[in-house]
Amino acid sequence: MTQALNVDLRKLLISQKTLNTDLDEDAVSGFPSQGFVSTPPGVSTPEMETKLRKILKYHRKIFLGDGNAAPAPDRGVVCDLDVGNVRPVAQRARQIPPHLLVKVYELLKKLLETGLIEHSESEWASPIVFVLKKNGVDIRMCIDYRVVNEFIKLSRYPVPLIDDLLIGYESAMWFMSLDMASGFWAVLMTERAKLVSAFICPFGHFQWIRMPFGLKNAPLIYQAVINNSLWGFVRLPPEEEALVDRDVLEFLKLDGPDADRTRVQDPERICDEDSERSSPMVPVLTDEMTVFQRNIAAPSQMGPVLGRSSYIDDIAHGAPTWDQLCEDLNALLFRLRYWNISVSLPKSEFGKLTIPYLSHEISAEGIRATPKIAKSVQDLPFPSTLKGVQSFLGSLNYYNKFIEDLPVVAASLYELTEEQVRSGRDLERAKEAFEILKCKIVSTPLLRHPDRAKQFVILPHVNPWAACAVLGQMHDGVIQPVRFTGRILNEFELRYHIAEKVVLAILRVLELFRPLIYSSSSPVVIYTRYSVLKWLLNSNSIEGRCLKWGLELFRWSLEIRRVQRDEDGFAAILGAGITPREHLDAVVEELIPAKGRVKKPPAVSIEMLESDYQGVVLSFDGAAKTSTRM
């Protein structure tokens, strides 16, 4: 029986002081020269854990412990804010409750002592807002930069899609996640950026020396820093590369031709002279010249270190073996040391079978919604305002890939009006949908990692007002879900034949999950009740929208398998996370929104119209109404 690894690294490395003291020579001497004894998957040994600890000890200088200590400045980057020729805006300071004055003073004093802020004479001034932390005692300072952000020229650097960062783990067994220590505070500000960042409060007028949270381009600047360190596009200029520890340069093979290359650096050895050179240094770069502006191309040995991107300051990675995970971790930490990027030890995980990442849990089996966050909606009452309904739907959209037929159930919530919610009239369907969605988010299924070596399966499900589908793969003879998707039909699509709506559902899967499916070597299997797909792919006489759909489907290698409504054999191969179509059809009968209801014509007898009638007859959906005028 396998067991999860529980390496308590926090007891080993508690704070920055602990990281740099009390390390005996035996604890960091060489690794065992022979490989470890083979162990079952998911089981660690003391030797394996020791190997990981040695790597962390060797790179201990970049780890920060608990607290809000300021990290060393990152190399090669500064925060510059371009507001053009806009006239500075100085807002008034907001009042602070008397019982929070002392806490605000202590926080500002600490920021001054750590060199994060300084007194300002800027013409800019943004107000501060304080929020109580979860413990109900400590406070978090926020600056209202909404006015300032309106004038800052937006950077176009891309932030990766979260779904793109949750794939690529199909062969991983062991995982790690790293959280950069107060990442934004590690970026220095240019002089004009300092002036724009100025904030005001009853205690005075201050400005930031390091990049604060809340500024428009701050996440994009830090995303560029971490991405470049992971992928290796550009390197530091010579004058700043001279500040990098010698063992890092040797590992990256960046040391000069006259350097002593006989000393092989690895995590089993710690060089005291390198430890003495590791004190944080202020970057040599001028305010206007970052590594991206100097554009010195990095050599080939500084290529991708993990083959993955970060989400701003969060990095996740998995490896099929423990040794591979240790090798990847060692290479990553050398790269972070090159750029002088600090890592928060308490917020990082190493050598785990499951890691939290971006409100998801990643394991070798697949991904789940974080249970703590998902269960937080369990006791929510039905919102009393339309904004509350929209907020609830917005929170569900983050986990939409986990919720089967989300648009089918949520349709009656999307069509609510403010007056309807406040008055409480005609909310029976909406409240029932609300309760169903709460149950669905609490019991979200495990989604398997997409594996390009396996055949993909599409299971479409449509009804009068929505088109949904499941993207799955076969595991041990059972179709397991990989992703769920769907959308509400527009007013024109509502009139489509049910078979045409099936085509819409399939096209949505193929387009939305193209990066997952496109490189698969096997044809995509589609289980459907209708044979219209075969007709679209093989007919020579189609036209209109059917021609458009046929051309889009023709690009894919598809295998159509028709199933009957009550086919027991098909239901038997559906995984626990996929609801049989018949059960879904029965549930949604009670949730039909207004746009999905069939409008029945009024009962009008033909006998009501006299044979010699001279008026005008207007026809609506087969019903007849008499009128003497148009």
Mean pLDDT: 80
Helix run count: 24
Portion in helices: 25-40%
Outline: globular
Question: What Rg, in angstroms, do the CA atoms define?
Answer: 30 Å
Biggest sheet statistics: 5 strands, mixed
Class inferred from helices and paired strands: alpha+beta
Could you say what the CATH architecture of the largest domain is? Roll
Ends: how far apart?
A: 80 Å
Give a description of the structure:
Helix content is 31%, strand content 18%. The protein is an alpha+beta fold and 630 residues long. It folds into four domains: 78-361, HIV Type 1 Reverse Transcriptase, Chain A, domain 1, CATH 3.10.10; 375-442, no CATH class; 451-594, Roll (Ubiquitin-like (UB roll)), CATH 3.10.20; 600-630, no CATH class. A five-stranded mixed beta sheet has the order 3-9-8-4-5. A five-stranded mixed beta sheet has the order 18-17-16-19-20. A four-stranded mixed beta sheet has the order 1-11-6-10, covered by helices on one side. Keywords: Endonuclease, Hydrolase, Nuclease, Nucleotidyltransferase, RNA-directed DNA polymerase, Transferase. Residues 133-229 form the Reverse transcriptase domain. Residues 451-553 form the Reverse transcriptase RNase H-like domain.
